[in-house]
Specification:
alpha/beta, Nucleotidyltransferase, domain 5, 2 domains, 12 strands, globular, kinase, Glucokinase, ROK, kinase activity, ATPase_NBD
Length: 304
């Protein structure tokens, strides 16, 4: 089999509830990438979806390169041993099917899968904002909230080898139950989904995803309601971060996901919520992802 330096490349796939990001890496350098709507695969019968995904990957690999392996990051729960996504609540398109085995059979290469929080963390640790961290907490604020802790580059696992779902911890009171079974779940209060819905309630004519940090910063300066909303969001994000920082003691926290790009608008509120008395201080060094939306797919490519 060809090595990466002999025209061999590795592919990474980040499967989210909204979009699927695919990248091709050669010697840890991105040479091709594409993002497809997750819903675009729903037009295929369930038994044909892995084949459609394989075709999309093949089309992305340059004709003069040899595909060596594929890594997948997916919003969990994920059974990494069986190679099955077990998340029908937010990722029904590819859940409860032998995705790893089928994709490997279609592409004739090894395929590995992990939680998308882990793959995003790995991407940042090796090639992004987390380099040189010995104990890195990674939090993705997207459709849901993904959490991973890397200790010297290795993900923390539960006793049975599973990924701990750190996005599903109780942080407050709400009448909206999470699909995990909790009310007041961090994911329902700190995800980009919450922020987007809250902004839509105040700005029904503005599409969240079509505007950047400068746009929302200007809105905050002109409309106190928007500034207060971001302050509330920051407090909700900080509530969960404080619990995780207390338990895990990271030397660095990396925020990723679309809501992380707006971090300057709610950073002060996050830091206020993390304040502790003397002797109980937290390591509150927080940075935004250097790889952006590509972190999960890049980290997935590095799984093998």
């Amino acid at each position: 089999m060809s090595g990466a330096g002999d025209g061999g490349v590795r592919a990474g796939v980040d499967i989210g509830g909204t979009g699927i990001r695919m990248v091709v890496l050669e010697d840890r350098r991105e040479i091709a990438a594409v993002t497809l709507p997750t819903s675009s695969f729903e037009r295929f019968e369930r038994q044909h979806r892995s084949l459609a995904l394989a075709h999309s990957l093949r089309a992305l690999v340059p004709s003069d390169k040899t595909l060596l392996s594929v890594g997948i990051g997916a919003s969990g729960p994920v059974d990494t041993v069986a190679g099955v996504i077990e998340n029908p609540c937010t990722l029904p398109t590819f859940s409860d099917m032998p995705l790893v085995a089928e994709l490997s059979a279609h592409l004739l290469v090894p395929v590995r899968i992990d939680n998308d929080a882990v793959t995003a963390a790995l991407g940042e640790f090796h090639l992004g904002a987390g380099r040189a961290s010995r104990r890195m907490l990674a939090v993705t604020l997207g459709t849901g909230v993904g959490v991973a802790l890397l200790i010297d580059g290795q993900p923390l696992r539960t006793a049975d080898g599973a990924h701990p779902e750190g996005g599903h911890i109780p942080v407050g009171h709400t009448d909206t139950p999470c699909y995990c079974g909790l009310s007041g779940c961090w994911e329902t209060l700190a995800s980009r989904t919450w922020l987007q819905a809250a902004l839509a309630g105040l700005l029904p004519d503005i599409a969240y995803e079509q505007h950047d940090l400068d746009f929302y910063r200007d809105l905050c300066q002109r409309d106190s309601r928007i500034a207060q909303l971001f302050e509330r969001y920051g407090y909700q994000v900080g509530r969960g971060l404080g619990s995780l920082m207390s338990l895990y003691g990271p030397d660095l926290t990396v925020l990723s996901g679309s809501a992380a790009q707006l971090f300057p608008l709610y950073e002060d509120a996050v830091q206020v919520s993390l304040r502790r008395s003397k002797g109980f201080e937290l390591s509150t060094r927080i940075v935004v992802s250097a790889l952006g939306d590509g972190a999960g797919a890049i980290g997935a490519a590095l799984l093998s």
